[in-house]
Write a structure and sequence with these properties.
This is CopG family transcriptional regulator. It comes from Sphingobium yanoikuyae (Sphingomonas yanoikuyae). Keywords: Plasmid. InterPro entries: Arc_rbn_hlx_hlx, CopG, Ribbon_hlx_hlx. This protein is mostly helical. The chain has a domain of 53 residues. 67% of the residues lie in helices and 0% in strands. The protein has three helices and no strands.
Length: 92
C-alpha cells in the first residue's frame, strides 16, 4: 500500500523532472519515485559498507588478525586470472 506524500521542488528542478519524464514517456511522479528508490537503495548499500568497515576495523583492533596488502593483492591476481584460489589465512 502506498501513502501520498509531498515534496517541494524549485522551478528549475521541477522543469528538469518534467522534461525527463516527457523524454522517457513516463510521468513526473514515476521519475521522482524511481529516483528516490534508486537513491535509497544506493545509500543503504553505502551504509552497510560503512558498518562492515567499522566492524572489520574493530575486529582487527581486538584480534590483530589481518592480511598484508601483498597477500591480498596476490590472491586477487589469482582470482582475476581465473584460478580457483582460496583466501589466504589471516595472521597477527
Amino acid at each position: 500500500m502506498a501513502a501520498a506524500t509531498s515534496i517541494k521542488l524549485d522551478d528549475t528542478l521541477k522543469g528538469r523532472v518534467q522534461h525527463l519524464a516527457e523524454a522517457r514517456r513516463r510521468s513526473s511522479h514515476w521519475i521522482m519515485r524511481e529516483a528516490i528508490a534508486q537513491y535509497v537503495e544506493r545509500e543503504e548499500k553505502r551504509e552497510a559498507f560503512r558498518r562492515d568497515a567499522i566492524e572489520a576495523w574493530e575486529e582487527y583492533q581486538r584480534t590483530g588478525m589481518h592480511l598484508t596488502f601483498e597477500e591480498a593483492d596476490a590472491w586477487l591476481a589469482k582470482l582475476e586470472a581465473g584460478e580457483d584460489a582460496e583466501l589466504p589465512n589471516c595472521h597477527v
